[in-house]
Amino acid sequence: MTVFSGIRNMRPAIARVLLISACVTIPFLGCDSLNPAFVTLLDAETANALASIDNGTGPIIVTFINNAQIEEQTLAYMLANLDGLSSIASDSIKPAVRMRLLVTYQDGTEASFQYAVGTAELVEVTDFAESVVSNVVFPCDVVQVELDPDRPIEVYIPVEIAVYELVEATGVGGAVTTEFEIRERIAPGFQALEVDDVDEDNYVTLQRNFAPGDTPAPVSPYCGSVVAFVLEGEFSVPFLTGEDDSPSYDRDDESTVAGVGGRYRFVTEIK
């Protein structure tokens, strides 16, 4: 059984939630069919796994669907330099993303659940493949599902990124030139995805990973509903043109630094 961390004032987990993965069927729920309008949101494997659920009277299903792509140059570099991807079709490789959703029950108790989706072969964290969770089934006593405000949405950066700085150098004859010098190398790891900076008039002053309003919206589900948080967008890492053929950036280039990890938006669906 998967053990959830971050549980707040929660009754015994086994009585409140049933964890399923995209490849596990759940015929013991005694339901008849899933609302066909929702099936179009799911990949075929997940839709088949949930096909026995009655969307009219059954439990509440909350799912995280990863429709994000990988930018062309980034994907080409990953395919050429990362082990374990040769057996995977390039168009099926998905960025590894994790987030926590905060669930509020009718009695006021709350529980935080981690969702993780994406291609596990990209991730060096050994327990990622075991923690990949895209669907959770709840009994019908949930009043709200929202992004956990205490936990960021994170994407895994599977490649090392070189950080450069433009410095002045004195050449022959005292001529002053500028050149890039490497200052650090950032190892692969999870990185928080951030919302754009805005001013007091809500104009964007620095573009990051999400536009304001493009993170998961709070949802108040009803009995038998299926809630889908659908991630769209593109994973990418920067390349310092003319300086390095590997992922890299100028640390003084604020807009490039802010956009590391890609650009995304969530579409929240309830059926």
Fold and architecture overview:
- This protein is mainly β and 271 residues long.
- Helices cover 12% and strands 35% of the residues.
- It has six helices and 17 strands.
- The chain has helices at residues 13-16, 36-39, 44-49, 72-81, 128-131, 254-258, and strands at residues 7-8, 18-20, 60-66, 69-70, 97-105, 110-117, 135-138, 142-147, 154-157, 161-170, 176-186, 189-192, 197-198, 204-206, 226-235, 248-250, 263-270.
- Strands 1, 5, 6, 8, 9 and 12 form a six-stranded antiparallel sheet that branches. Strands 2, 3, 4, 7, 15 and 17 form a six-stranded mixed sheet that branches. Strands 11-10-16 form a three-stranded mixed sheet.
- It starts with 6 loop residues before the first strand and ends with a strand.
- The model is unreliable at 1-16 and 19-41 (pLDDT under 50).
